[in-house]
Amino acid sequence: MQITRKQEIISVAAQLIKEKGYNAVSMRDIAIAMDMKAASLYNHIKGKQEILATLIVNVAEEFTNGMKFILSEDASALKKIEKIIEIHIDITVNYSENIAALNNDWMHLEGDALKKVVQMRDDYENNFRSIIKKGITEGDIQPKHPEVILFSILSTLRTLYLWSEKRGKMDVNILKKDMVSVLIKGIV
Fold first, then answer.
1. Does an H or E element contain 109, and which?
2. Which of 55, 78, 108, 157 could serve as 88's disulfide partner, Cβ 3.0–4.6 Å?
3. From CA 160, how far away is CA 89, in angstroms rounded?
4. What is the pLDDT of residues 42-61, one digit of tens each?
5. What is the pLDDT of residues 76-114, one digit of tens each?
6. What angle in degrees, to the nearest 10, is found between the helix axes of 77-94 and 160-167?
7. What single DSSP character describes residue 1?
8. In sequence order, which ranges of 44-76 are alpha helices (DSSP H)?
9. Which parts of the sequence belong to the HTH tetR-type domain (predicted)?
10. What are the residue ranges spanned by the domains of the chain?
11. Residue 142, CB-side half-sphere exposure with 13 Å CA sphere
12. Is 0.85 surpassed by the pTM of this model?
């Protein structure tokens, strides 16, 4: 599949935003990295807000679609949580720049994009919370506060891209197996 100029701009901008942060990157910086004039960027993209929205909405949709698939499966709550962890790992490996933007720069979104992302995040967390509660009710998960469980798992998964970057590439299958084990069974 041929990458479009717009996709190339978004990709280059994503790397710059990951390195410097959304506020520190200008359209001029993106143009320099693309080896083109800043004015030429506007032939392909409306501005930084469109880039940020594209990065964040795309990855939020990946999470939403993953959750929809998991919810549709006939599986135990524990199995669904394992799948959620695995999906987070896959998305992190495949979309690390998007994850960085989602985690660090979502608050810079404006208008409909911000509303959409906040709604997707809330729905995702509510679905995850309901899976945890079901697991507690069924006796598969210890009767701990669902918010603590949700926070513990999501905090780890949301920062995986940082850890993975510092640690270097790790076999995804090992990462999935060990992370699922630690997050679900603990270390004892």
1. none
2. 157
3. 8
4. 999 999 999 999 999 999 99
5. 999 999 999 999 999 999 999 999 999 999 999 999 999
6. 60
7. -
8. 48-72
9. 3-63
10. 48-185
11. 8
12. yes
